[in-house]
C-alpha cells in the first residue's frame, strides 16, 4: 500500500514521472545495487538511493518505520553469517568465533539491501497500486499477474474486515488464546472459515463483474508517450549508475 504523501504530490519531482519510468528506474537501481562489489561502491549506492528518496513524497517517519523492519532481518544476518562462514576469527566468544569473511559478506549484504529498499521506496512507495498495475501491464507483465495485484489491492480490506468480524465473534463466545491444543484447533477453524468466506465473496464478486460485462481483461487507458521529465530522469539515472558501476570496478 502506498505511503501517505507529506504534501501535494505535485510538489515532488518523482511524483510527476510516468509509472513506467519509475518501475524501470527502480529495477535499474536494484540491479546496480546487487552488482556492487566494493565497500565504497556499496556506500555510494546507499547515499544515491537516500538522496533519491528526498525527491519523493515520503514521510521520514514512514520510511524509518519500514527500514526498521528490514534492519531486524539484517541484525540476524550480521550475527549468523560470521558464525557460519570460514575465515580468520575476529571476535571469539567462548566456542563461538566471528570470521572476517563472514563479517565482510554480512556488511556487504546489509548495504546492498538498504540501497535497494531505499530506491524502491523512493520510486514506488507513493505510486498508487492501480497506476502501478497499469504501468506493469504496459511494460508487458502477464495480464493474470496484473489482475492478481489489482484484485489484492481492491479486496484486501474486505478480507481483513471479515477476519476481524470472525475474531470478534470468537471473543464474544469467550475465546482466550492460550498455549494449548484447543487454541491451535480454534485458530485452525478460524483459518478454514476465513478461506470459505473469502471464496464465497470471490464468487459473488466474479458473478457481479460478469453481469457488468467483464470479459477477463481490465480496460487500460491509452499509453501516453514519455514526457521530457521522464527522458531527463532516465538519462540522469543512467549516467549516475554508469558512473557508480565504473567507480566500483576501479575500486
What does this entry look like structurally?
With 251 residues, the chain is mainly α. It has two domains: 9-135 and 226-250, no CATH class; 142-211. The chain contains eight helices and two strands, in the order H-H-H-E-E-H-H-H-H-H. It has helices spanning 19-35, 39-53, 60-84, 100-124, 129-138, 143-172, 181-211, 228-250; strands spanning 89-93, 96-99. It has a two-stranded antiparallel ribbon. Helix 1 (19-35) packs parallel to helix 8, helix 5 runs antiparallel to helix 6 and helix 6 crosses helix 7. The longest helix is centred in the C-terminal third of the chain and has 31 residues, at 181-211. It is flat, with a radius of gyration of 23 Å. It starts with 18 loop residues before the first helix and ends with a helix. The relative contact order is 0.15. Residues 1-7 have low confidence and may be disordered.
Distance between the termini: 38 Å
Output the radius of gyration. Answer: 23 Å
**Domains (count):** 2
Number of helices: 8
Oligomerization status of the protein chains: single chain
Low-confidence runs (pLDDT<50, min 5 residues)?
1-7
Form type: flat
Sheet of most strands: 2 strands, antiparallel
Give the SSE order as H and E letters: HHHEEHHHHH
Helix percentage = over 70%
Overall pLDDT metric: 84
Strand content: under 5%
Helix- and strand-based class? mainly alpha
Strands side by side in the biggest sheet: 1-2
What is the number of strand segments?
2
Amino acid at each position: 500500500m502506498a505511503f501517505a504523501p507529506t504534501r501535494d504530490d505535485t510538489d515532488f519531482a518523482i511524483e510527476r514521472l510516468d509509472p513506467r519510468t519509475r518501475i524501470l528506474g527502480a529495477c535499474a537501481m536494484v540491479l546496480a545495487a546487487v552488482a556492487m562489489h566494493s565497500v565504497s561502491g556499496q556506500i555510494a549506492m546507499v547515499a544515491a538511493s537516500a538522496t533519491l528518496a528526498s525527491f519523493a513524497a515520503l514521510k521520514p517517519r514512514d520510511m524509518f518505520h519500514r527500514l526498521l523492519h528490514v534492519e531486524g532481518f539484517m541484525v540476524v544476518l550480521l550475527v549468523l553469517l560470521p558464525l557460519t562462514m570460514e575465515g580468520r576469527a575476529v571476535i571469539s566468544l567462548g566456542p563461538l568465533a566471528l570470521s572476517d569473511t563472514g563479517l565482510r559478506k554480512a556488511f556487504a549484504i546489509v548495504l546492498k539491501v538498504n540501497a535497494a529498499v531505499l530506491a524502491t521506496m523512493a520510486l514506488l512507495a507513493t505510486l498508487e497500486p492501480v497506476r502501478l498495475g497499469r504501468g506493469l501491464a504496459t511494460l508487458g507483465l502477464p495480464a493474470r499477474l496484473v489482475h492478481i495485484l489489482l484484485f489484492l489491492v481492491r479486496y484486501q480490506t474486505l478480507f481483513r474486515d471479515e477476519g476481524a468480524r470472525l475474531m470478534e465473534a470468537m471473543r464474544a463466545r469467550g475465546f482466550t488464546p492460550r498455549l494449548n491444543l484447543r487454541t491451535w484447533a480454534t485458530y485452525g477453524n478460524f483459518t478454514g472459515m476465513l478461506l470459505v468466506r473469502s471464496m464465497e465473496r470471490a464468487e459473488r464478486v466474479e458473478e457481479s463483474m460478469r453481469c457488468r460485462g467483464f470479459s477477463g481483461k481490465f480496460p487500460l487507458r491509452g499509453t501516453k508517450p514519455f514526457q521530457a521529465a521522464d527522458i531527463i530522469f532516465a538519462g540522469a539515472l543512467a549516467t549516475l549508475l554508469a558512473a557508480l558501476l565504473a567507480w566500483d570496478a576501479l575500486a
